[in-house]
Amino acid sequence: MSLAAHLVVALVALLHVWFLVLEMFLWTRPSGRRAFGLSKEFAEQTKVLAANQGLYNGFLAAGLLWGLWLGDAGRAVTLFFLGCVLVAGLFGGLTATRKVLWIQGLPALLGLVLVLLA
Known about the structure:
Oligomer: single chain
Distance between the termini: 5 Å
Number of helices: 5
Helix content: over 70%
Structural class: mainly alpha
Low-confidence stretches: none
Shape: elongated
Largest sheet: none
Strand content: under 5%
């Protein structure tokens, strides 16, 4: 993979680590509530669901980092996890807020394109 592909894949992985932190550890804190526009009551009611969602984001990050760690042998792994992130970004952009499309979907698409071109 090219340096650009590696950097974008690493960025997508780091974004998902940050999503894990937001959803698992900061969901009910002011910074987490502000990031998602949540009331204190709603955040408390949904913290278990958010933690579960955060865990899945961690799996996506782990898969991307695994693909990078494998180097050229991890191309298929990297493509698979970038595809998963793209689908999640598209779904979130259609069902939650369009912001998800840009924050999650667009970087994944860019990563897919760069990995495929490398």
